[in-house]
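# nightly structure sweep
# worker-07 picked up a monomer target from the shared queue
# config: single-sequence mode, recycle default, output format = C-alpha cells
# input follows
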Amino acid sequence: MAKAPRRRFVRGLCGVVASALVLSGCDWTMFRYGPARAGFDPTESTIGISNVANLQQKWAGGTEVFSSVLTEPVVAGGVVYVVSNATVYAFQAGAGSNANCSGLPRFCNTLWTAPTGGFIDSSPAVVNGTAYVNSTDGKLYAFDATGHTNCSGSPKTCAPLWTAPTGGFGSSPLIADGVVYVGSGNTLYALDAAGVVNCSGSPKTCTPLWSAGTGGQVLSSPAVVNRVAYVGSGDGKLYAFDASGKTHCSGSPKKCTPVWTAATGGMISTQAPAIAGGVVYIASFDKRLYAFDAAGSTHCSGTPKTCTPLWTATTAGVAASAAVAKGVVYVFVELSGEVLSAFDAAGSVHCSGVPKTCTPLWTASPGGSGGGFRSPTVANGVVYVSAAQHLLGFDAAGTVNCSGSPRVCTPLWTAPRDGLGVVVANGMVYLGSSDGNLYAFGLP
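# output follows
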C-alpha cells in the first residue's frame, strides 16, 4: 500500500496551524492585512503573474441600496466582512457555491448583519471569533463574528457583545496581543480585546486600558510591531507609543505620552503607517512619502525624542496608505490624476542626496481621477489597485508589461469594477464597490 503523503504543518504566517498541502493563502483579518499594516499577503500562492489575467467575477453581494462600500473588506474563518453606511455585513467567503448564493451572474445574500448607531467609514477587524468596528456615534463595537451570540431573526441581525465609548470619527481597529487599538478624536485608545478587563454592566461597556493624546485628529489606523504602536495624526506627526502601556505611561485612568515622534510636512489623514524591515513608511498631505527608523534610533535625538526621515520621495499627489512587499514600497495617488508608484524600500536604488530623496523604480498611470484614498494591495507578485473605474493588477516587480526609461507599466488584468479597497485571501480577490456591492473574483 502506498504511503499517504506526509502532512507538514506550519505556524506563523496565518497565526494558526495549517496544512501545507491545502494552504493557498491566509485570511486578511484587518485593514491592510495585519498589525504591520503592510497591505501584503505573503501567503497567497493561487493567483500570480502567470494566471492573474484569467480572473473572473464569481459573485456579488449587496449591502444597502445607494450606499457605497468605502473601506476594505476583511476575510476571516471562511467569512467576508464589509461595512456600508452604519452596518456590518457578513458573507460566506469563497467562490459563491453555497446555499446563500443563486442565479447567473451569481448573487449572494448575507449570513448576518449588525447595525451600529453611526456611520462606519473604516474597515472592521476580525480576530479570535470577534468582529470589531469603529462607528461615528463615538463607540467601538464588538460582535460575535460567527453570528450566533446576541444574533437572531431572519434575515439574521446581531447586537454587540460589548461597546466602548471613544471620541467619534476615527480609524480602523487593530488587534495585537489581546489588545484592541483604535484612533478616535485626537486620541489613541487601547482596550481589552476579550471585553473583560475594565468592562462591566448590561449591556456591557468597556473603558480603555490606556489612552494617548496627539496634537490632531486621529483618522490614521494604528500599526503595532514589536510592542510599539504607531499612529499618524492630523497635526502632521507620526507618533510611537509603548503598546503595552508601561513606558511613558502613568495615572488613573492611565495616560501615555510618545516614546518618540516624527514630523512630516503636512497633515496625515487616513494614511496608515506601514512597517517592514525595521522601517515605518507613511504618506502625508505634503505629497511626500516618508521612511523612518521604526526603532526610533537612527536619525533620532533629543528629549522628548524626535526623528527625521531616513529618506523621502515626492509623489504625484496626496497618496493613500502605502503597501510594502519584498523590498518595494507602493503608493497610489488618485485625487489629482491616478498614478501608481513603486520605490526601493531600502532607500538605495534611485535615491541620492542629503537629505536623501528617492524617485520611482516604475510607475503606472491608469488614467482618470476622482475622489477618495485607494491603497494598493500586494499578493504573490501582483499589485492590485482600483483605478479609472476598474480593478487592475500589475506585475509588482515592474517587469512584465513594463518598458521604457523611466519605466512605465500597463496592467496584467482589468475588471470593470470600481471601489476603494481590494484584498486578496485564500485564492480570491474581494472588492468593496462604490455601487454598494461586494465583488468576489477567482480563477475559472
